[in-house]
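A note from the maintainers: we've had questions about how concatenated examples are separated. There is no special marker in the raw files; a new sequence line simply starts the next protein. For clarity in this README we add a label.
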Amino acid sequence: MKLSLAQLLGTDQPHNPEAAIDFMADSIRANPFEVTLLAVGPFTNVARLFEKYPGISRLIKSLVIMGGKYSDYPTPWGPSEWNGIIDPAATALMFAKAECPIRAFGLDITWQVSMDAQQVSRAFATHPLLREVRRWSEVWFAERDALHFHDPLAAVSLIDPSVCNYEQGQVAVDLSPGREGFTNFVAAKRQGTTASDRQMVEVATSVNADQFFDQYFAPFTPPAISGPS
């Protein structure tokens, strides 16, 4: 007997790649100007959302992304960044179609927030959930010297935007051969009087790593108990 893909996966229905897109659209329409969309992977679904539902981004409170690289801060992959280059057409479409405030955290900033194996071993020993992450990290550190908090930095900014400093400007996505998905940031102060209809983007330009880690570990820190007065 030949089993269907749905049976092999133990589901009643095969995977619907549009389900996530429709869910986002329904949630945004049901809560206009209240949804902050956090994109911390390749931007295929965000681009598809903007493409399938024209104008939907005008109902989004803000779009916060981890992706791209917006300065010449040295990283191992030069001007490239994984989330931007894995689906370059989606990266370009997202920036072109967004009609809501955008805050972007590039690899040049997230690379500056990291821990080595000993630091992770100490910091992730205080809570059962953290200890599980520490166990997973052993695989990572078998091949790498540091764990970088790329996506968590973007997520923490939803709670504490002051963890970074920012600069307004415009982002262009390169689609030329060999540079597909590379991002180029031009700060507003460097644009002079040149008119452009491209969306302004708030790009992180520096990070307070200590402040980030305080916020990151805060949910796992038991509150202080005051004694009787």
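[label: protein 2]
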Amino acid sequence: MNTERNRIMNKQTEKVLDGLKTAMEAELTGHQFYKAASKNTKDPKGKETFSRMADEEMGHFNYLRHQYQSILKTGEYDFTKKFLKGPKKGGSSPIFSKEIQNRIKTSHFEVSALTIGMKLEMEAAGFYRKCAAKAATPAAKKFYTELSEWEQGHYDSFKNQLDLLKEEYFAANHFVPM
């Protein structure tokens, strides 16, 4: 009886660890993307924003790694280590400076970076929502919900910025909807 319980517990622990590994890989991918975006954008505020986001993604990675190591050692999450505060809710908080409007026709990289960033953040938020739904404890559910809300905040910021630029960018480049 005890052996069966241990086998079930080990399977559950394996699933949690696999989920954390997947999440850590995604955070590292986001970190690398935002680091590259910071390096390649011509917009000073964009550089600052993408650099901050690269740092945030690394913070997520480190926190997830801490949880992974805790589960390996103790079989439990360690919520004594606090997670970083998420982005502020609401507000458009543009990612790029107002000067981007002056060079909107040649802002291909910035528009692409917003689109790719939105995809990364949407996938991360969805992944964490699924983890929260499957969480075995209220503390784990809260942990994954906070991660999902953080990533959703990033997505919302990107979407707000893209919405501000999209029409002018499309018009300047003569893009016509199909």
